[in-house]
Amino acid sequence: MNEKMTQETLTDTAFTTLDLHPRILSGLEKAGFVHCTPIQAMTLPAALKGKDIAGQAQTGTGKTAAFLLVIFNRLLQESGKDYGANPRSLVVAPTRELALQIHRDALSLGADTGLRLGLAYGGIDYDKQRSVIQRGVDILIGTPGRLIDYLKQRVYNLKYIEVVVLDEADRMFDLGFISDIRYLLRRTPPPDERQSMLFSATLSQRVLELAYEHMNNPELTRVESDQVTADHVQQKVYYPANDEKLPLLVGLMRSLGESHSMVFTNTRAAADRVGRVLNANGISAVVISGRVRQEKRQKLLKQFHDGEIHVLVATDVAARGLHIPDVTHIFNFDLPQDAPDYVHRIGRTARLGAKGDAISFACENYAFHLPEIEEYIGYSIETDSASDELMPDITIPPAPPRKRSGQQRSGRGRSSSRSRGGRRSRGQG
Question: Which pTM was predicted?
Fold first, then answer.
């Protein structure tokens, strides 16, 4: 929510011209928001009148604020029923990181509303989250697994939901959450007795089928762009051999000077190795992946968000849903194996009209994914070659000793969580 918006990313629609509650306008003023982004200008007029919305927009366009303002407005204007401690609005996100970000944005924009917020996601604070929800919340934000866990324990129920939001619906399919989403939606009031909003990077056929099944004649809104990727990302691809990737990464980073960069790898092992090499060669970096405990991951993300850390190495666990200001460079150390993941990764920079750079390595292992990526984004990525200055001699530290198998088994639940390792566990926690 602290991202800088440029004039070309804003519309002429001022928030003060919309039918928003005075407490919401107060929060917007404190946050410094005056004019709507395109997705906000397109969705808010209809949504504030109670219309269901299925919205498509690129990442970083302000859709989180759009649905939060609608939720706040409806809950403030309509007197609460006798719902006890149960929530009146449900927001479902595919990953813990996105749920946390939505919660932070809600705290910021809704500071003057007096509405109570609850958060439910896996990996941390089980009893604390449960206690907060039991005491009563107006808006419950979470990931499917933990939401269903508490629901089945009757910590809360969904009978009084007035507004339900599905954020990044396409990612719900990717992570295998759709049966969980249907489970939750079937326990809310019927579609004609609640307002529903769905947002997705793509309104594919499967997403539209979900919308028409569980929503009340939703209005489709699309923020069209000539490109699938953000307009202000300068993209470039190098073709290093496998053993040239680490020297090239170090050389490029040294040439940048101080930057706010993210480096993406396809595996945890690669992320760990990249992190070790960068630190060994004078570039301070931290690593987050599914292996990093949730509590530590949140701390590292906050430090990177606040600018205390300048280089973050990550697997795709961090590619979606993070709103980190002023990320200057994205490095695809490994080209992603799915073309949409390329768009999501480089969407971490050039957010809300800022400029950024995306540098990809088409190495021996992953170069064959490049044609699919270029077909998906609709154009060829500019190629570049590495000069000798960009390929320095570097220090390669030894890998830490591997734990014995007995030590691995002694870690409580560690082997079972690794065997589950599928993509779903990342979002559910």
Answer: 0.70
